[in-house]
Please model this.
Amino acid sequence: MKILVAGGYDTQNLGDYASFLGLQKVLKQEWPDVNFCVLSRHPEDPFSRQFDVEMLLNLDHSCKAESVGRIFNGFNEGDSGERVHAIRRAMEDSDCLVLGNGRLFIDISLGFMRGPLSYFALLVALARFLDKPVILSSVTLVRPQTGIGEELLHFILSNSQKILVREEESAIVAREYITRHDKIEVLPDLAFALSCDDADFLGLPEISLGALGVNFRGVSFDKSFEGKQIDDAVNHVVDLIDRTGKDIVFCSQCTYDIDNKMTDDRYVNNLIYSSIPEGYRRKCYLLKERLTLAQTLGLYSNLDHVFTFRRHGFILALTQGTSASLICDEVNTNVVRESIPLRSCYLNPCDPFVIPETDFSYVDSLLTDLRRDLSGYIQSFRGVMIS
Model:
């Protein structure tokens, strides 16, 4: 079986990487020889080497500046058609198109052949022309803010054979746009398929025993840096050191810096670290290098606890046997709080970073149940292939 995959696998977001690895692991249980071809903005990135998959240039531009005044690559006057034909050939050679994971279908940069909704709708149209089934895998759905956005989401959902969402709230959104509710299924985030066996400890810095991790989400910070958000983060770290006496490791989970420094967690981590009083700074580790997904899992497993603003920072820590607190400050984290019953592990942005009492036996039981439920992906893919 060969699967053509399109999603957020080209922006160095380790949460997306984790969900892709989860998809690989789950499907290989049923189809050991399954192959993947991944459409990417940057096919030369290390993604292909980390996951041993074929990469193919998508229709995007390599940076935002190149896209000004243009539509998708291959459709502008004077463009070569090779990129479009390569995608068509890859689609013809595949058994299905998978769109996932995450919050993909949002109407930003929306216009004719511009933006994610238009891009995914175009891929779905091509799949329809070539009679290839479409599966939405491990996605979160939000209601578009524009009329054309709603039309495009309706088109994508209507022409997908399976809509596998990560929480009930997304299923509610999907039901508003289509009448075939039987193809909507709520399944756990694929990142829960990861385990301690996926960790790599080579190349990691030596950190002190009992260190704590902080994982700030760079893109959540205001671009103007008018002080308050940085000051709040500094206060969290200083207070945590005062109360625990433990060393702090700044963990970066998205390191994409092509269009905007804010999408690189290392940039915001450095701003926070630089604002910490020198005496406290000596208790902090600032990791400047990009880590692979496997190294990040190894790092998390070496920590006593992780405070994270990222959905997958929370999930990845738990899969490595490390307790974690998720700071819920936006849609993607709030839905986790509402769908995964670990009440003591959730914090509001203004709450102090206090390590909760964690019932690890309950967490282990919950992870066991979630991993068991991931078999729903196998059933969904099998059903689509048979039909």
